[in-house]
Amino acid sequence: MEFRHLGRSGLKISEITYGNWLTHGSQVENDAAVACVHAALDVGITTFDTADVYANTAAETVLGTALKGQRRESLEILTKVYFPTGPKGHNDSGLSRKHVLESIDGSLKRLGTDHVDVYQAHRWDVSTPVEETMQAFADVVRAGKALYIGVSEWTADQLRQGHALAKDLGFQLISNQPQYSALYRVIEPEVVPASRELGISQVVFSPIAQGVLTGKYTPGGAPPEGSRATDEKGGKQMISRWMRDDVLSRVQQLKSVASELQLSMAQLAVAWVLQNDNVAAAIIGASRPEQVHENVKASGVRIPAELMQRVDAALGDV
Ligand code: NDP
User: Which of 49, 54, 206 to mutate to test the pocket of ligand 1 (most atoms within 8 A of CB)?
Assistant: First the structure.
């Protein structure tokens, strides 16, 4: 496993990070969820990403249970705040001082730790002044409940605002967590250049487009039994944007690139996002331990420029 710094901080995370959205507390039974976390630990993954909203807090609880007994100093635990986790009352979402300061305590309790390594704003909150949010984050850091602060899916301008306020308040905004894959490259024109300038890393989610870039979904074919595309608890709906014949047939064209590199399609997809030097980690999801074993082999792989061009040519502008 290779490790990369988050932003200009001293914190290093495993370039393959394990995340538990849609799986723990939902699609996957608890025993299998724990087996996936243990598989991740066995292969050298030290960084784990979750959020209070995943499975309405159950995902944090499952992760906390699975990590019980591990040496805390050897782990990096990332969680998030923004979305409501239970009752949708007027103060139960967003990035107000009230919601941030009340939410961190719930997350720590469920994760079974007294601090998270990175506490992340899950989205930008249009209804709370960013000054209030960043002051709340400064207080979370000062209280020792989070070591660093990150955000998720912020625009370049939002990153600039947050970064400047954090600097004034004496803490570091070190990461952004956007969706990024060979099928979804929205961050490249603005977010990545701004982040390079500010010293913010991307910790990217859905690097294999929720399973689509494994090539296991074929145009016109039925999705494999037990896959996310058949998960009625939420996965099927989340992956639906990619389940189009034109996308699936273009993805099939990546098979020859993967085989030239002697990689599986999933490994190619993970290695592809790690090729971007502003990406500190690819957060992989897994419904079973074998997927963790397979995908982790993307760590340390470098894809030659000519093959990167062939990926571009195959996927075009989907
Ligand atoms: P991926 O793109 O890695 O998709 C993971 C899913 O793909 C698995 O659950 C599995 O689903 C399938 N899969 C993985 N490996 C293989 C393989 N080798 N062969 C076949 N199928 C495979 O990432 P996710 O979409 O799960 O997102 C990863 C993490 O990113 C989340 O857990 C979360 O931590 C974070 N995230 C953050 C968001 C944010 O807003 N900040 C939003 C979304 C995610 P199956 O077996 O069921 O088909």
Answer: 206
CA pair distance 202, 4, nearest whole angstrom? 11
Q: In the prediction, which pLDDT does 189 show?
A: 97
| Of 20, 210, 212, best ligand 1 pocket probe by most atoms within 8 Å of the beta carbon | 210
* Nearest CA, atom 42, ligand 1: 205
pLDDT at 139: 98
> How many angstroms is it from 209 CA to the middle of ligand 1?
7
Ramachandran quadrant class, 314 (left: phi over 0; alpha: psi -120 to 50; beta: rest): alpha
What ipTM was assigned to the predicted interfaces of this complex? 0.99
pLDDT tens by residue, 6-52: 999 999 999 999 999 989 888 889 999 999 999 999 999 999 999 99
Cα 53 from Cα 265, distance rounded (Å): 30
Residue 133 forms part of a structural domain = yes
Q: Could you list the residue range(s) of the whole structural domain that residue 144 is in?
A: 10-212+279-302
Count: domains in the chain: 1
